[in-house]
Amino acid sequence: VDTAGSFWFTAIDSNFCNIKSDTLNVILANYPNPVAALDTAGTFLLCPADTIVFQADSGFSGYLWSDGSSSQEISISTPGVYYVIVSDSNGCTAISDTAIVNSPSTIPPKVLLPNGNSLCKNDSVIIFADSSFSSVLWNNGSTEHELHADTPQTLFYTAIDSFGCSYSSDTIHLSWFPIQDPAISILLTDSIYCMAQIIPLEINPQNYISYNWQNGDTTVLSSFSSSIPGDFWQTISVIDSNNCQEKDSILITIEICQGMIANRAIDQVIVYPAITDQIINISSNIGIKDIIMMDESGKTIFKKKCNSNRNATINMERYSNGIYILKIFTKWGGPPEIKKIVKK
């Protein structure tokens, strides 16, 4: 009914008698139609973690928003279409205009680290911000898309996309691989080293996967000798299981010693290691002629001619555990050097 007047109806019952209803008198009140409006309408961009507040006109007795809210004002954090239906004290209603809220389809930024986040000591790494963002701010204050890092640290950045929305990147933690610094030691108790003397060297610790001495040796052991006096640096480069490289150097001072006769250096025989289950190394700065090895009973069990070479080896793997005596004859003659070794 949208006009004023009196309204009734006639009904016929089961006895075919006419029955008239009561009368409804309708009077049209001259109430003003409510007008619903938002404080802002149109299309909006909602950045991540942001909110937008919409407010309907005041003075209405009821509000019903498209998201089910029933207050005059709503705060939204998700994209969608928003409007409000208002009702006044007379029960009259009106619907507002519409606000359309969109969210950018930007993919959140990441820290790009091509070679992993664990580094060797003294190494550096290049870290990249996502190039699709026009502006970045790292937590260390840098605004560059590319960073060079050479210390352990935690890094992340804030990025601004083309819509002006702000995003936080993921976080990386840079760390250095642990490494034991190598140390060269001299396997002699002497404090003075003479010309032509063979000086055995050893590197510790001995858990590296690669050894490269200055003279080309590639094991944990090496040696040095000089025919002239002076100060000489000996260096080794090692590589560990993480492919990290470290170096160590030692300064060896060679002196002109008493006892050097007619250009003949003092004969010195070195046997190492003294306890082993594998290879025995024998060296002489003069040259080795013959080696004889005996067991504890004095029985000769091994002989070797060395043709005056300065270095020789004996493989102990095939011999029983026990104590053995070495007789080492050098090319200068005289009594042999006697050395005791232990096969374990």
Commentary on this structure:
The chain has 344 residues and is mainly β. The protein folds into 4 domains: 1-103, Immunoglobulins (Immunoglobulin-like, Sandwich), CATH 2.60.40.10; 118-176, no CATH class; 183-255, Immunoglobulin-like; 269-343, Immunoglobulin-like, CATH 2.60.40.3080. The protein contains no helices and 33 strands. Strands 28, 29, 30, 31, 32 and 33 form a 6-stranded mixed β-sheet that branches. The protein has a 4-stranded mixed β-sheet with strand order 22-27-26-24, with no helix packed on it. It is rod-shaped, with a radius of gyration of 47 Å.
Topology:
Blueprint: E1 5-7, E2 10-12, E3 18-20, E4 24-26, E5 42-45, E6 52-55, E7 62-65, E8 73-76, E9 80-82, E10 84-87, E11 93-95, E12 99-102, E13 118-119, E14 125-128, E15 135-138, E16 146-149, E17 153-155, E18 157-160, E19 166-168, E20 172-176, E21 183-186, E22 193-194, E23 199-204, E24 210-213, E25 221-224, E26 230-239, E27 245-255, E28 269-272, E29 275-276, E30 279-294, E31 300-315, E32 322-330, E33 337-343
Parallel strand pairs: 5-12, 13-20, 22-27, 29-33
Antiparallel strand pairs: 1-4, 2-3, 6-8, 7-10, 9-12, 10-11, 14-16, 15-18, 17-20, 18-19, 21-23, 23-25, 24-26, 26-27, 28-30, 30-31, 30-32, 32-33
Summarize the amount of helix as a percent range.
Answer: under 10%
Measured on Cα atoms, how large is the radius of gyration? Answer: 47 Å
CATH superfamily of the largest domain: Immunoglobulins
Low-pLDDT segments: 260-265
Number of helices: 0
CATH topology of the largest domain: Immunoglobulin-like
The CATH architecture term of the largest domain is Sandwich
